Amino acid sequence: MSGGDSSDQTKQTMTTVRAANAAEKMRGRACVITGATSGIGRAVAIELAKQGACLILVGRNPVRGEALASRLCRQHGSDSASFVRADLGSRREVEQLAGEIRNRFAVIDVLINNAGARFDEYGASPEGLERTFAGNHLGHFLLTALLLERLLLSLDSRIVTLGSGAHGVTPPAGWILSEANYDRKLAYGSSKLANIMFAYELSRRLRGTSVTVNAFDPGGVATRLGLNNGLKAWLKHIGYYLRKRQLLSPRRAGRDLVFLCTAPELRGQTGGYYSGGRKIQSSPLSHDRSWARALWRISLERSHLNAERLGRAWAYFAPEDDASSGESFDFLIE
Ligand SMILES: NC(=O)c1ccc[n+]([C@@H]2O[C@H](COP(=O)([O-])OP(=O)(O)OC[C@H]3O[C@@H](n4cnc5c(N)ncnc54)[C@H](OP(=O)(O)O)[C@@H]3O)[C@@H](O)[C@H]2O)c1
């Protein structure tokens, strides 16, 4: 046997051992995945179920959601997965969703804020807000806030929010577009910038706890994203990445995301932006604290969150002035 073969074999063995260790670590761990009915979220659900995690799958399409949950339960045991239907763009539905998740999981180990959509035309959420910002950012902001107490009870819990290369825009003042000034690229880009800024700001607020928060750019992935705008628009998006030879399968992008949620070597790593298994840079604006503070205040207002509704998790969600004067608390389990 040549030296090359033996080193390849060693690498292969190490990869297998690392995968087995990761799988062992995920057994019985409670994971919530939004946007699990399609694309990257679906691929992540399949991989995490294989590793023994207990999943709550969130999406709007009950046919696809129930079918995936049944398949995972058949393959990996009846606790593997359940589907909860919810529109992240509706405040009321997110509140109900959070209630259902809290009923099922006393402790949450992983929250993947993955659901996302792009719209060529303006549309409003049930509460009358531009739907890209409402569904991609506000829904995840509110869901995370309402689940935070359960995440703080895990010894190593991870929140990962999906960003995108499209985040390099300057959002409108007040962040939320109206019908009159709607621009599809600005709407999607602003929502993805909000996803990344939310991850950075929350990671700062949660430093010293057992919860890490990171953002993830999957790259160009062949999914249903944009198909709602028609086949032509979708083919244009796919064609762009195909020509650059950068189009990934959902499975490949899902593996990178699972790595971020499970890798033992990333335990304690927080406030990063990752792609393809390594840290990358996000736009200069994404690091701007004054923009982040404004986004935080708007998100709190639009989500109707306050100290009374959020209880002890308010210490991490209050506007900065209030948080610094408020009483903090320690959820860490010795
Ligand atoms: N594909 C890419 O090239 C690419 C690049 C950069 C970033 N991303 C990000 O990756 C994430 C996953 O997208 P994908 O590419 O996998 O697209 P996808 O195949 O269209 O999947 C999107 C998922 O989000 C769910 N979803 C969308 N809006 C929702 C809402 N209002 N409420 C609840 N669920 C909602 C969809 O479920 P239902 O249809 O059941 O509601 C679906 O499960 C998104 O955040 C996207 O911005 C994708």
Features:
12 helices; 49% helix; Rossmann fold; 8-stranded mixed β-sheet; alpha/beta; binds NADP nicotinamide-adenine-dinucleotide phosphate; 334 residues
Rg over CA atoms:
20 Å
Question: Main beta sheet, described?
Answer: 8 strands, mixed
Straight-line distance between termini: 50 Å
Q: List the total number of helices.
A: 12
Describe this structure in words.
The chain is α/β, with parallel strands linked by helices and 334 residues long. It has a single domain (16-314), classed as Rossmann fold. It contains 12 helices and 10 strands. It has helices at 3-26, 39-50, 62-76, 91-104, 131-152, 184-205, 231-243, 250-262, 289-303, 307-310, 314-317, 320-325, and strands at 30-34, 54-59, 81-85, 110-113, 157-162, 211-216, 220-221, 247-248, 273-275, 278-279.
Topology summary:
Layout: H1 3-26, E1 30-34, H2 39-50, E2 54-59, H3 62-76, E3 81-85, H4 91-104, E4 110-113, H5 131-152, E5 157-162, H6 184-205, E6 211-216, E7 220-221, H7 231-243, E8 247-248, H8 250-262, E9 273-275, E10 278-279, H9 289-303, H10 307-310, H11 314-317, H12 320-325
Helix pairs in contact: 2-3, 2-8, 4-5, 5-6, 5-9, 6-9
The structure holds NADP nicotinamide-adenine-dinucleotide phosphate.
